[in-house]
Amino acid sequence: SLGQLIEAGTGVCRHRSLLFKVMADELGLPAALVRGSYNGGGKHAWNEVQLENGQRLLVDVNADYLGLTLD
Question: Cβ contacts of residue 67 below 8 Å, gap of 6+?
Answer without folding.
Answer: none
